[in-house]
Amino acid sequence: MKITPNYTVIYNDDDIIVLNKRSGLLVAQDRYDPDAPRLDSEAEKEFGRLYAVHRIDKDTSGCVIYAKNADSHRALSMQFENRTVEKIYHCLVNGRPLWQTKTVDSKLLPDGDFRHRTTINSRFGKTSITDFKLIGICGPYSWLEARPKTGRTHQIRAHLQSIGLSIVCDPLYSGNQKPVRLSDIKKRWNGDTETERPLLSRLALHAYSLSLEHPKTGERMTFTAPYQKDMEATRKQLASIFGVDPFNQK
């Protein structure tokens, strides 16, 4: 697996490429900041022309697929449009949900306020569905699995906000942007809080896997993106302290 500062390669053939994107990088050109660093521009330096077929938020890490030719672009785009692609996200949220599973189907309006956030709007919003599952509680945090059935901008973040939950370090949808620090969760911690580096200080949302049909062979394939270093370090510490691990679900 080739490692660069911006992505790792999960899968690559003549028709598609699947990358594990770092947080803070756009998937394709943004209308508000056309000169911002982009994953497609970076990867095209190595792999040639790539065609975007879906997006994940700039601050979200994880699994992104691109087509390598026009035929694959059409075939993949149809799968996303027809909602036959299964998308699984993992996120760490502040607080404790009072449910084990929950489906949120509030209609969403992208760019619904002056901060360009997605808002709930029953009149003008588009149908949006997300299935949530509580993986486990880790002290002040909880791990959730999210399966969006639609692909609206900021869908998971907006749906969570609508039910009173926020993802750790979410700069747009949370009033609590406090990073995850070991000193806050470990009872016996003897370090120096003045020099302590946070375990996680960015949006704790990761596009964990994609399942779809290969555009040429028709084979159903599942691609999984390992956590980035900061989220992996957080997972390990929370698993050690609280015994809850998103990778060991029942």
Describe this structure in words.
The protein is of the alpha+beta class and 250 residues long. It has one domain (7-242): Pseudouridine synthase (2-Layer Sandwich). The chain is 19% helix and 28% strand. The chain contains five helices and 13 strands. The chain has helices spanning 39-47, 70-81, 155-162, 182-185, 229-242, and strands spanning 7-12, 16-21, 51-52, 61-67, 86-94, 101-104, 108-109, 119-120, 130-138, 141-148, 166-167, 205-213, 220-224. The two termini are 29 Å apart.
Assign the structural class, choosing from mainly alpha, mainly beta, alpha/beta, alpha+beta, or little secondary structure: alpha+beta
Instruction: Report strand %.
Output: 25-35%
User: So what's the CATH class?
Assistant: Alpha Beta
Task: Write the H/E string, N to C.
Answer: EEHEEHEEEEEEHEHEEH
Counted by DSSP, the helix tally is 5
Q: What is the average of the pLDDT values? A: 92
CATH superfamily: Pseudouridine synthase
Rg, please? Answer: 18 Å
CATH architecture, please? 2-Layer Sandwich
List keywords for this structure.
alpha+beta, 11-stranded mixed β-sheet, two-stranded antiparallel sheet, 28% strand
Question: In short, what is this structure?
Answer:
This protein is an alpha+beta fold and 250 residues long. Helices cover 19% and strands 28% of the residues.
Secondary-structure blueprint of this entry?
Elements: E1 7-12, E2 16-21, H1 39-47, E3 51-52, E4 61-67, H2 70-81, E5 86-94, E6 101-104, E7 108-109, E8 119-120, E9 130-138, E10 141-148, H3 155-162, E11 166-167, H4 182-185, E12 205-213, E13 220-224, H5 229-242
Parallel strand pairs: 4-12
Antiparallel strand pairs: 1-2, 2-4, 3-4, 5-10, 5-11, 5-12, 6-9, 7-8, 9-10, 12-13
